[in-house]
TrEMBL record:
<protein>
    <submittedName>
        <fullName>DJ-1/PfpI family protein</fullName>
    </submittedName>
</protein>
<dbReference type="InterPro" id="IPR052158">
    <property type="entry name" value="INH-QAR"/>
</dbReference>
<dbReference type="InterPro" id="IPR002818">
    <property type="entry name" value="DJ-1/PfpI"/>
</dbReference>
<dbReference type="GO" id="GO:0006355">
    <property type="term" value="P:regulation of DNA-templated transcription"/>
</dbReference>
<feature type="domain" description="DJ-1/PfpI">
    <location>
        <begin position="4"/>
        <end position="173"/>
    </location>
</feature>
<dbReference type="Pfam" id="PF01965">
    <property type="entry name" value="DJ-1_PfpI"/>
</dbReference>
<dbReference type="InterPro" id="IPR029062">
    <property type="entry name" value="Class_I_gatase-like"/>
</dbReference>
Length: 198
């Protein structure tokens, strides 16, 4: 497999583990055997620090204007989604980027961002258990599987809340590189990966 660019969207009040868990999972998978299979990076609307949930300041690597082509886009959630869904610039960037990627992923209520962008139309999805009604409001034509940790539509894959982002990422690693690669990644991270999630 050729190296893939994995863009992770970040915004103010993003849930920390929603983006950091997948970042670590994909980066760790790319380090196995010095394979350099994944180039993982964060992207925000503007080239300035982002204040994640609970006051963690992060410096996105790219902004919308200079981000490289993404093969995979991951949209995390967090309290910031309540404002993000009314940010036309961000929603339009997600829409346009989604058209070009091989895989479109969401964690937690990042699914609400995908729903607002019209990217879950007539698909199945999951989200944080407390955000099911919000997702239903923005994506009425989406079948919500609220008890599922991961829902795979083929090109669009959604994960449940917070820690589910790690499982989602390792699931994608398994899908791209095989189960053994995902298991090796989990071992490297000392993460207790349940076999049914890959």
């Amino acid at each position: 497999m050729n190296s893939k660019n994995i863009a992770i969207l970040v915004f103010d009040d993003v849930e920390i583990l929603d983006f950091a868990g997948p970042y670590e999972s994909f980066a760790a998978a790319g380090r196995i055997d010095n394979s350099n299979l994944f180039n993982v990076y964060t992207v925000s609307e503007k080239p300035k620090p982002i204040m994640a949930r609970d006051g963690l300041s992060i410096n996105p690597r790219y902004s919308f204007s200079d981000a490289p082509h993404a093969d995979i886009l991951l949209v995390p959630g967090g309290p910031g989604t309540e404002k993000v869904i009314f940010n036309d610039t961000l929603i339009n960037w997600v829409k346009s980027t989604a058209r070009e990627v091989e895989l479109l992923l969401s964690v937690c209520d990042g699914a609400i961002v995908l729903g607002k962008a019209g990217l879950l139309e007539n698909l199945s999805a999951t989200t944080h258990h407390l955000d099911v009604e919000r997702l239903r409001e923005v994506a009425p034509n989406t079948l919500i599987k609220k008890t599922e940790r991961i829902v795979d539509n083929g090109r669009v894959i959604t994960g449940g809340g917070v820690s589910a982002g790690i499982d989602l990422s390792l699931y994608v690693v398994s899908k791209l590189l095989g189960k053994e690669w995902a298991v090796k990644t989990a071992r490297m991270m000392e993460y207790d990966l349940k076999p049914e999630w890959i």
